[in-house]
Structure formats: C-alpha cells, structure tokens
Amino acid sequence: MTETVSGPARGGAKGRSRKGLKISRVFTTPGVHPYDEVTWERRDVVQTNWKTGETVFSQQGVEFPDFWSVNASTIVTTKYFRGAVGSPDREYSLKQLIDRVVKTYRAAGEEHGYFATPEDAEIFEHELTWMLLHQYFSFNSPVWFNVGTSAPQQVSACFILSVEDSMESILNWYKEEGLIFKGGSGAGVNLSRIRASCELLSSGGTASGPVSFMRGADASAGTIKSGGATRRAAKMVILDVDHPDIEEFIETKAREEEKIRVLRDAGFDMDLGGKDIVSVQYQNANNSVRVTDEFMRAVENGGMFGLRARLTGEVVRKVDARKLFRKIAEAAWACADPGLQYDDTINDWHTCPESGRITASNPCSEYMHLDNSSCNLASLNLLKFLTDDGRFDIESFIKAVELIITAMDISICFADFPTEAIAETTRAYRQLGIGYANLGALLMATGHGYDSDGGRALAAAITSLMTGTAYKRSAELAAIVGPYDGYARNAEAHKRIIRKHAAANDAVRSVGPMDREILRAATQAWDAAIKLGEKHGYRNSQASVIAPTGTIGLAMDCDTTGIEPDLALVKFKKLVGGGSMQIVNTTVPRALKTLGYQPEQIEAIVDYIAEHGHVVDAPGLKPEHYEVFDCAMGTRAIKPMGHVKMMAAVQPFVSGAISKTVNMPESATVEDIEEIYFQGWKLGLKALAIYRDNCKVGQPLSNAKAKKAEQPKEKEVVVEYRPTRRRLPKSRPSRTTSFTVGGAEGYMTAGLYPDDGLGEVFLKLGKQGSTLAGVMDAFSIAVSIALQYGVPLEKYVEKFTNLRFEPAGMTDDPDIRMAQSIMDYIFRRLALDYLPFEKRAALGIFSAEERRRQLETGSYEPVPESVDDAGDAASLTSAPTDTQKATAEARPAPTQAHTSTELVEAIQGTVADAPLCFTCGTKMRPAGSCFVCEGCGNTSGCS
C-alpha cells in the first residue's frame, strides 16, 4: 500500500531532504469520492427512555448511508454529532463528522512531513474516509468527540496516572481524574507508593493508608459524568500484593456489598441508580491486586509471603500466601472485585524498562505502560475482511492496519492532553492501541468454535498479523519522521520485545488452511519489523491492545465486541420508522453454509434458533457442529476456562493487554475462581477479572422478579371471558392438496369461511382403519374446532413447524423442498396458502418464487406491477429498506424486549446479570470488562 520516497521538507524538518509515504489506492477509485459511491438517505433519530416514555433526544433528517443500521446511526447521531440540537451549527450528516476528523488528520500529516506529495495526502484522506464510511474500523470515542472542534483536541481514551506518598500528590490525583472524566475518558492508578496505615508519619502520627484516600476519589468519580454527560466515570485502582494494607484493600468492596444487602433487606432502595445506593462507598472503580511471580509461586508451594513497608522496603509482616490468595478469590466471588494483574509478566513484555516500570493500567486493563501516559485507540471490524467465498482478505487487512497506524500516530502531533505530565510522556513515547472487534462473529462465520483449538489458532494468527504489521509500519514511520524520543534509551529492550513477539508467532500451532495462510503473512510482517527496526528504530513504544469497543463496536454494526464471543444467537434489531424485529444473527446462516449445509437445511435450522434461541436439537444440525454456535449466554454458554484460553492464545501478540471479564455461573465456587486466577498466571496473561452471576445486589437480578411476585395482591373482581365458536356454513369452499413427505403420501383438505379464512383441516394419511389414520382424524378435528373458536393459524404454525419425527425428508412440493415431519409440512403449506405475506415473513416462511426474488433483488416482497409517479419509480430502484431486508429468520420482537440482552431473557427464560442503562433504561450487555447499552451507546467504562 505504501512505500517511502524522497520528498520535500515539511513541518519542523525545513531545510532537510526528507522521505514521505507514497500511498496507493486500495479501497477507493481514482476520480470518484467515496461519498459518491454509496446511496444516502435521511432519517429521524428519536431516543426515548422506554420506562418513563420521556424523549431524551430528537434530531430530524440526519443523513446516513442506506446500509447503516438504525441503531448505528442513532448512536453516532446522539454521541458524536457536535453542536447544539436545533441550532444551525449542529452536524446532521455522517459526511460532516467524517470530514471533521479525517481532514484534521490529513492537515496534520502534511504539516509534519508524513506524505511524499499532496496527491498522497489526498489518497490517504480518501482511503481513511472509505474505511470509516463502510465501517471497516473506528477511532475511539474521544476522537469523534473532540477532533476538529473548538474543544481541546483530546484523542486518547486511556490514561494512567501516578500518585506519590504526599498530600499534594494525592489531591492532585483527585483533580487529574476529574479532568480526564470530564473529557470522556478513564484513568487508572497504582496507590502502592502511599504509606500503609501501620507506618508512621514524620509528625509522629500514623498514616491513613491508601484505602482511606480511595473514599475521596470514589466520591469525586460518582459525581462526574464524562464526555459531556455521555457516560459515567471509569477508573481503576491497583494495589501491590506486598503492600501491608492489601487485606483491607481486598475486602473493601466485599464489605460494602454486604452493607448493600443489609440495607436492601431493611427496605432501602439499593438497586443500581437507586436513591440510597449513594451511601455505599468504593463502587465507582474497578479494583485490581498486582501480584508477582514470587507471590504466585508461594501460593503454588504453600509458602509464606512478606508484606513490605513503603518507605524502607523491609518486611513488616508475613502472611500465608494461600490464605491471602483465598481472600482474593472469596472477595471476587462475593462482588467480582478485585481482579488480578500479573506484574512480572507485564514488565517482561515492557518495551521501555529504562524509563520506568509499568505499575498500572487504564480502567478496562488493556492499556499498560508508563505512569502519567495515555493511549489512543482504534479498532478494526474483522468481519469486513471475510470475503464472500469464506477467505480472510490478508492483503486488505495488512493495508488497512498500515493506514490506521499512520493516522493514529499523526493524531499525537496535534493532540491535547489533560495534564502537562501526560502530554510530555505521550509525545515522548507515542503509545498506540490498534485492536479489533467482531472476533466472535468471525470465528462463527468461518465455522470455528470460540472454545476450540481452531478458533484459538485463527484468533492468534490474526492478532499476530495485526501487531506485526503495526510495528513494521512504526519502523517505516521512524525512517520518515524519526523514532519516539525515548527509543534510544530503550532500543535494546524494545528490539528484544519485537523478537519475543516473533518467537511466539513461530510457536503457534496451525490447525487449518485459513490460520496457516495468515500465520505465513504474520511471519513475513515480523521479519520485516525486526529488520526495519534494527535500521530505523520504531516510531511507537506500543502498537496494539484489545479494547472493549463498546460504543464504537455498535457504531460499526458489529455483532460482537473486542475479543468477546457472541452474546447469543438471536438479536434485537431496530427498524426505520420505529419498529423492531427479532432476528437470528446474520453470522449463523453464513456459518452453516461454511459447514456445508444446504439452503433448505439452513432455513430449517435458522427457524429453530429463532424460536428457541439455541441450536440443541435443531433439525439436521450435526452435534459435532454445536460448538460453533456456543455463546456467552444461553443453553450452551462457553465455559469460563474457554474465555481464559482464548485470552492466552492472543496475549503474546498484543503490546498491551486484553480487556475482558470471564463470566462465571452463579453456582461457581471460590475454588473455581482460585483456579481461574491461578491458570491466568500460568498461561501468561497480563490481567484477568471475573464476574459471577448475581454476585452484586445493585443489579436488576432474577430475585427481584421473584420478590415482586411474592407481594400480596389486592383483591380483584374476576371477569371470566369465554370464546364462542364460529361454525362453518353447510356449504363452503375448500381446497385439497396431495403431498409426499419422505416417501409417505397423504392428502389435506382445508375448508374455508365464505368471507375467506381457514375454518377446518382434514388430513388423510395411512390406510382406513389404521391407528395412524385414526390419530390424524382426531388431530384434524381438534385443530378444526380450535380454529373455529378463534385460535389464530399463526399460533399453530409457530408450534408445529420444525417439529421433528419420521417420516421426514424430501417432499414433492416446489415451495417446501424439505420437511422435518408431516406436521412441519402441513403447517408450512397452510401458512403459504392462508397467511398474509407480513405474517409469513415474520415466521420465516416463503414460497419458492419469493426466495428466488430475494436472491435477485435482495427483497422477498413482490414488486408492484405499476407506479403512479416518478417518485414511486425511483423508490423501486433504491436500496432495500430494513423491512425489505427481513430474512427468513426475522419475526416481531417480544414487546418486553428493547435490546438483545432482554430478547435473550424473553426467549430462553433466563435473567442476564447486567446493569440498566441510565439514559434509556434498557439492559446493557458485556463489552470487555465493562458494559455497553445497545440502545443508546452508553458505556460503564471506556470505549
């Protein structure tokens, strides 16, 4: 995609001949702007809180490409468009948003000498625009909030602060956190330099200890909403395992959780967002214990471990390592905190050890580097690189990574930072965090189970290729604009880490042809990164992280966020005009096709999933393929260790770390958590957090429904409604259909009301007088009477389609080529004959002609024979609407569902342990180590 050539001097390089990037087109067409290649449409964005009915946002006539979902356009409009709503300055088009950001990047790139010629700068602008427009990647939220506006140009989402053992430093910590929260980002800090509560002050008194100072910071975070009230503050607090106050730190949140239980039982409102929850402390931060190899070996061997004074370093107390480790697991079992960070592993992969140790992380634990530093993020949508023939487009992926890394590095040239210390460190070390979303969807679409050797090999190969390419580009940038300022001091250490990554790449065991091909490309990328780095150094001290991608993942229409698996197989989809549909994730049919299933089989399996929410006993699906469709929730939820193994497969190819919480069932024991944390250390992870279902009181939990049901009800007047039978007249029209299913022949006679409408069904199957014939007669009478009493035909279709028993197989009906049973065929035929198109579409039942039309036009709906005016004629040639795109797996969503999480609850009868969104009132879904709202894009952490 790019090469370096001699070019004129730019920016601070005046008077010297410099090289610049020569950029070739990959996604764009010469002479055609990316905006002119897509169809644009106007939409009205209205966002309401479904509980109160209050309209929380409204903007009419916003402009988006027709292939952007309603949800994605809503999130981008409400979160990222700048200017007061209703004012002329308010952005109304995605074009304005992308131009505001991309043109700023181009101008900075030209100013600082990144491009060989103005033509290369223009191609850079067009390529970046095309990828953003087509949702191939997204910058992190602060870029969209701030770049190109009158506000400070803050581009980083992740910050690490530093606190020394002085009151001035502690109070400065409060101030710096507040400024970062206000700017739309999160911050992490290690408090281990603060003296323990058992150590003396110079005045002769005793120190307060770090836990006491956490109270003030927690209260501050609880009052600040970040990014212009777009989400609540996100923060991480860390304490080293050898700190004398470590036990108090471990138990802090667990004790508060017990307080919540007591107050709740006393009648106080302790739900998340409840009016009394504010009395509880330490709830606004994620807590992590920084453990060492020395401590973990003591746990493994059953030894003692020394807690050390902060000022002198001497051991003040020895503790049983296993008992302390047990306390960590018990606290995590009770309230999900603390998580673990593995200190020696983190610092063994540190590119800049000469500049200081890595002591902390950002709130979601993916960014780990020097104190008082920041990282700007961008994430690729992996599913976009899967071609129609099932191949991973390696060439486009490599070129996309090169372009994105270039843009991310350019942003540091013009970025503003909340503190001078952070600005100085970030400009000197230029930390970047390229990552990805939709890994879970990609694995499913390619027929790989998330918890499988093939899935882990493919994930490792893609991550290795991404980071190897990023460092290769970083070395190329170093040749043009110079290595990062701290490189000379850390050159040998940095090159050692690049070789460690390359060695890990060589150690990956290939499982299939797809990961084998990607690994070959990754090997070439690492070889080039090593050679170019030896010659030029590197522009960036860090290149990659795996972030939660909450808000931006939704903006890219991703099915899965970060490294997470699919939440569930069914999905809640908003439609233009305000409606909603329940659909089976589009990756499911793609996966079934990859696994070799025929169209009729795929349709039957998808129909089954739409009704049941899982694949167990789906008609025609081989049990050995079940694992491909395992998800985070539901009947076949991925086991906790499956999440840990996936993290372990990917971690050696990530500069930073991975934002992920290992979800565990409510039945998980303390011993299970100990095992997860111990294996995280053994497998080489940098950080690990767990969440046990229903461990927190301040969540909308299943027992809330039970308590509501237990409340005594007022005596009500009971009104009994009885159906009346509407009999058919003596003479009525009817239709007789002959059929064959799996070689068994039969006849169906359907009697109709004169005003149209099915009133009776008679089935002839088997010899007269046989048991089968008698059963079918009785069944026919029962169905006919129910129809006359008003039972809708669609209810029978919902219940009896996909019913599976012999005889089954091929039929002689061109509209229904395969049937799982006689009942499956009968009610599909009745649906085709007597249900309107809209109801059949919702049930996923289409005729052969309708399926043919969908393949040709993208829509099942019949095309009108004539149009009245030019406007109608134009509408026929425009792109299909969301409703027209409704596929065989679409059906009306349950009325109580407003997000995919709530949809899964409604279908499977489960309760997801997730918080409610403060803006729209819907249940959020996990995204890395935080939560994201599908409805409005709010997150509980950084995006």
TrEMBL record:
Gene3D superfamilies named among the record's database cross-references: 3.20.70.20
Protein name, per record: Vitamin B12-dependent ribonucleotide reductase
Region described as Disordered: spans on this chain: 1-20, 856-901
Residue span(s) of domain Ribonucleotide reductase class II vitamin B12-dependent N-terminal: 44-135
Cofactor: adenosylcob(III)alamin
Domain TSCPD residues, every copy: 729-833
GO molecular-function terms, A-Z: cobalamin binding; cobalt ion binding; nucleotide binding; ribonucleoside-diphosphate reductase activity, thioredoxin disulfide as acceptor
NCBIfam families associated with the record: NrdJ_Z, PRK06556.1
Reaction catalyzed: a 2'-deoxyribonucleoside 5'-diphosphate + [thioredoxin]-disulfide + H2O = a ribonucleoside 5'-diphosphate + [thioredoxin]-dithiol
Protein role: Catalyzes the reduction of ribonucleotides to deoxyribonucleotides. May function to provide a pool of deoxyribonucleotide precursors for DNA repair during oxygen limitation and/or for immediate growth after restoration of oxygen.
GO biological process, one term: DNA biosynthetic process
InterPro entries assigned to the protein according to its UniProt record, in alphabetical order: RdRp_reductase_class-2 (IPR050862), RNR_2_N (IPR013678), RNR_lg_C (IPR000788), RNR_NrdJ/NrdZ (IPR013344), TSCPD_dom (IPR024434)
Compositionally skewed regions (Polar residues) per UniProt: 875-886
Domain (Ribonucleotide reductase large subunit C-terminal): residue spans on this chain: 156-691
Signal sequence coordinates: none
Organism of this sequence: Thermasporomyces composti
UniProt KW Iron keyword: no
Domain of life: Bacteria
Family statement: Belongs to the ribonucleoside diphosphate reductase class-2 family.
Class of the enzyme per the UniProt entry, highest EC level: oxidoreductase
